[in-house]
């Protein structure tokens, strides 16, 4: 079984809108998501469509004895988000539905195997709220807002609704739930914004692993750091990095000694088209991989926003 896709976001043109989706492919814990904790005027809706191309070795379960794994995953993502007033604090809700085509080959028990599959990746639902430094504001009130320090939190949930065949090692879905609570802080200094966040991803068991066996996975813990620079006319760019560790698995209670410890880095560029539309370009690659996924990914996201008197 190889992992699921992660989503990257496009930000609106002239406001410090929060991150909405990640577009990529890999473990849930591995995402690189700048501007997750920023203020957004209440009542704005976002429609997003993204495309990404990933190439490399991506495994959700490093204990699976695959060698020389090479895969190509082309993913289209559809997403909807809405900014909220959460008891006087700014927040948002988003849902992300990705569909992918996966083609790949690997050696299993010394024999070459190939896999080609198209279908849904497990959808993700997320709720976030800024607890400090980002009050809920209308579109008319927002121009007077100046960010200093923002502290926020979020909970992302993936549902086991993606493509899954219990007789196959490689699937697009994981046939289990995951829950990712996160705490983040954002500090603005003129055109520069620094962000730091910490999260843990917790998994339920998959009871249909290679038939009717049960596979369990320990939590994966992650930190992210982002250096964001705002240019003129709503353009902004970001240098992104993440470190994550954990995720050891066991099958029928027998440990696989597959503790993960990986580092990734990437970059992001958002370009406004007009008041309602923007485009985001992103790319990332692995810096160090002890166990788990080694891959490069690049993509593009289009975002349309409406509502709240825009």
CATH superfamily: Autotransporter beta-domain
> What is the percent of helical residues?
under 10%
Unreliable runs, pLDDT <50, ≥5 residues? Answer: 1-29
Q: What characteristic shape results from the CA principal axes? A: elongated
- How is the largest sheet built, in terms of strand order? 1-2-3-5-6-7-8-11-12-15-16-17
Indicate the proportion of strand residues.
over 45%
Q: What number of structural domains do the residues give?
A: 1
Strands, total number = 17
How is the CATH topology named? Lipocalin
Report the CATH C-level class. Answer: Mainly Beta
Summarize the structure in words:
It contains no helices and 17 strands. The chain has 310 residues and is mainly β. It has a single domain, classed as Autotransporter beta-domain (Lipocalin, Beta Barrel), CATH 2.40.128. A hairpin with a 2-residue loop joins strand 3 and strand 4. The N terminus is likely disordered.
